[in-house]
Specification:
alpha/beta, four-stranded parallel β-sheet, Aconitase, domain 4, 197 residues
């Protein structure tokens, strides 16, 4: 199973509160059969509106894998396409002031840790990333710390979600594969699956 204890790389400062799922992935892209290709359309309308000046378009943030957001990120429609689009773009973790509950749950279910921090700490990290886009960023779920350049902040996460990432239990498919023999034994003992009995 896939344990997620620490994420390192580069970050994107995505400034603004109440960024909803309609902005993360516009409704016209929800007709897809799979989530493949959604990463190219993340923030499509915002990016088009500001013509290449969106953080996800700027050359200095290409290849970043952690996004730093403000309050109530992922509010609005409860579409799982929003975290899927972010993941397909390459984001592996999100640090923010707060998250909409359903968005947060959808992120956990696909393996994207979302941690919260004080508003002033989030703004400080965003400022570091604006001043130095290549500043190394590290999100440590075990110590509940985030480091960006010389800055270190405390982060928070629901204890159950944190434990599921650290142990790999967030990965339900991985759990099924890891326990296939035990599942097979249990299934053979279920009376409604035992047609011979």
């Amino acid at each position: 199973m896939s344990k997620i204890q620490n994420i390192s790389g580069n970050g994107i400062p995505l400034v603004g509160s109440d960024i909803d799922t309609d902005r993360i992935i516009p409704a016209r892209f929800l007709r897809c059969v799979t989530f493949d290709g959604l990463g190219e359309q993340v923030f499509a309308d915002d990016r088009q509106q500001i013509q290449g000046k969106h953080a996800f378009d700027l050359p200095e943030y290409q290849g970043a894998n952690i996004v730093v957001v403000n309050a109530n990120f992922g509010c609005g429609s409860s579409r799982e396409h929003a975290p899927q689009a972010i993941a397909k773009w390459g984001i592996q973790g999100i640090i923010g002031e707060s998250f909409a509950e359903i968005f947060l749950g959808n992120c956990v279910s696909i393996g994207i840790p979302c941690v919260t921090a004080k508003s002033e700490d989030i703004k400080a990290v965003q400022e570091v990333l604006k001043a130095n886009p290549k500043a190394a960023i590290n999100l440590d779920l075990e110590s509940l710390k985030a480091h960006c350049g010389d800055l270190s902040i405390d982060v928070n996460m629901n204890a159950g979600s944190r434990q599921s990432f650290i142990t790999g239990m967030w990965d339900s498919c991985g759990q099924l594969i890891a326990n296939v023999e035990q599942i097979r034994v249990t299934a053979t003992n279920l009376p409604y699956l035992n047609w011979a009995g």
